Amino acid sequence: MTHCDLTWPETQSPDLGALVATLKDGTLEWRDNLGLPSPEAIIWSPYPNGPSIGGLLLHLASTELFWIQKVANGVEISPEHPAEKYDSTMDQYLPHWPIPPNEPIQWYFKIQDDTRTEMIDLILAHNDPSRGYENRRGSFTYRWILAHIVEHDSYHGGQAVLLHEMFKKLHP
């Protein structure tokens, strides 16, 4: 029988610790289900301008940068960051997802892991989960920003898993 639990990071806010632990666990879960897709599977899309595994993974990193670094900490994102470079060329609502770089999955995971490490450092330095923020989209709390990141990670991580399953079925 498997025993599952979460490890809370050291933080001034139990709310933020719970959200960080949940984010880490969710990512581990979908990555385990994703496996190690081939470079062909990573750039494959089920329809023209549709999402791909690589595009989704870069978008996830870019979203963390946007909400945690830019919105919550007021620090501009480097236009040279690979995730920002990709995300600035796409529109998920149109949809228009360009073909991502033809790199192995480890390249994508490293971008995500490096970004996540930096974002967690910023989160753990924060001490007020109810602090409010505003931008053109509306107003929200820091706690909401992190909950949104958790939801967003699970949503797109699940899409990446589904895309890999579709690719394997169509390209045996």
Could you characterize the architecture of this molecule?
The protein is mainly alpha-helical and 172 residues long. It is 59% helix and 5% strand. The protein is built from 6 helices and 2 strands, in the order H-H-H-H-H-E-E-H. It has helices at residues 14-34, 39-43, 53-71, 82-87, 105-125, 142-170; strands spanning 132-135, 138-141. The protein has a two-stranded antiparallel ribbon. Strand 1 (132-135) and strand 2 (138-141) form a beta hairpin. Helix 3 packs antiparallel against helix 6 (142-170). The radius of gyration is 16 Å and the shape is globular.
Concise summary:
This protein is mainly alpha-helical and 172 residues long.
Compile the SSE list and pairings:
Blueprint: H1 14-34, H2 39-43, H3 53-71, H4 82-87, H5 105-125, E1 132-135, E2 138-141, H6 142-170
Antiparallel strand pairs: 1-2
Keywords:
single chain; 172 residues; mainly alpha; 6 helices
Could you spell the SSE succession in H and E letters? HHHHHEEH
For the largest sheet, list the strands in their spatial order: 1-2
Q: Mean pLDDT, as a whole number?
A: 94
Poorly predicted runs of 5 or more residues: none
Class by helix and strand content? mainly alpha
Count of separate DSSP helical elements: 6
Share in β-strands: under 5%
Distance between the termini: 33 Å
